[in-house]
Amino acid sequence: MIAQQLQREQTPGTVYLIGAGPGDPELITVRGLKMLRAADVVVHDRLVPHELLAEARQDTEVIDVGKYPGRPRPSQEQINRLIIERARGGAIVARLKGGDPCMFGRGGEELMACRRAGVRCVVIPGVSSILAVPAAAGVPVTHRGMVRSMAVVTGQADPAGHGHPIPYRALAEIDTVVVLMGLANLDEITARLIEAGRAADTPAISIASGCTAQQRVVRGHLGTIAEQAVAAELGSPVLTLIGEVADLAPSSIDAESMAQFLHSNGDLWATKSSAAGGNGEGTARHWRD
Ligand SMILES: C[S@@+](CC[C@H](N)C(=O)[O-])C[C@H]1O[C@@H](n2cnc3c(N)ncnc32)[C@H](O)[C@@H]1O
Fold this sequence. Notes:
With 289 residues, the chain is an alpha/beta fold. It has 10 helices and 11 strands. It folds into 2 domains: 2-128 and 266-286, Tetrapyrrole methylase, N-terminal domain (Cobalt-precorrin-4 Transmethylase, domain 1), CATH 3.40.1010.10; 139-249, Methyltransferase, Cobalt-precorrin-4 Transmethylase, Domain 2, CATH 3.30.950.10. The strands form 2 sheets. It has a 6-stranded parallel β-sheet, with helices on both faces. The two termini are 33 Å apart.
């Protein structure tokens, strides 16, 4: 309580851009959890592990600004305004984002908006899906003798239409390529990579809901993975990794038992959270303009 009070006095009106990790609530950093517990307002995206919200104080305002089908979503400008206004009102704002806030998460835009507004904004890095999702599925993104380079690309077209095309020729030379937000365009991305010179039989793996008990894995090759992901009906979020290391993935039986072993800890988390008296859905609400 005293620590919280001190925190409040030392950091009035601050936005903390917190990386919530890639799906498993235990993958938030110690600092991220500390600031989430200290926050007066939590503004969160859809992909953050919802168990974490129970870590907020009972009186914390929890606002969901995530994108859901059929529901209005605030624009980035509205989110910027929301966090800036709350911080200007003296609140400790925890802006909770999936993975790392600055990895294809628009954290940079929020950081710049706070800076322009003269509001202090502190980034608390998070465990990004680009490393954690393959690792938790038993695939090291680098491996001695196999990988000397790695690239991360987004499969989503630039919504602002700035026309930043993916440099496929350069990408075809990179050992490990990780594709985020690529499910809808995976057929095009893989075809363009093959066109640019990457061998169609390069190992590839798609991982859905990685780092969670719902994880699903599809293994194949650059030339087949898009079709396989559709056939397996993988649902978002999906990360696809292309490169020799995809061949190091464990057999599906080993992968399943690994995931089961890991997530048997989930119960522990639930017990801890309720014992700590988290607010759960108490003051939570969806964004409204
Ligand atoms: C908007 S990006 C945000 C990435 C996030 N900032 C990070 O550092 O992981 C969302 C994309 O990340 C990937 N992703 C995030 N969490 C994932 C998970 N648990 N399993 C598989 N892919 C995930 C998917 O490609 C998803 O479409």
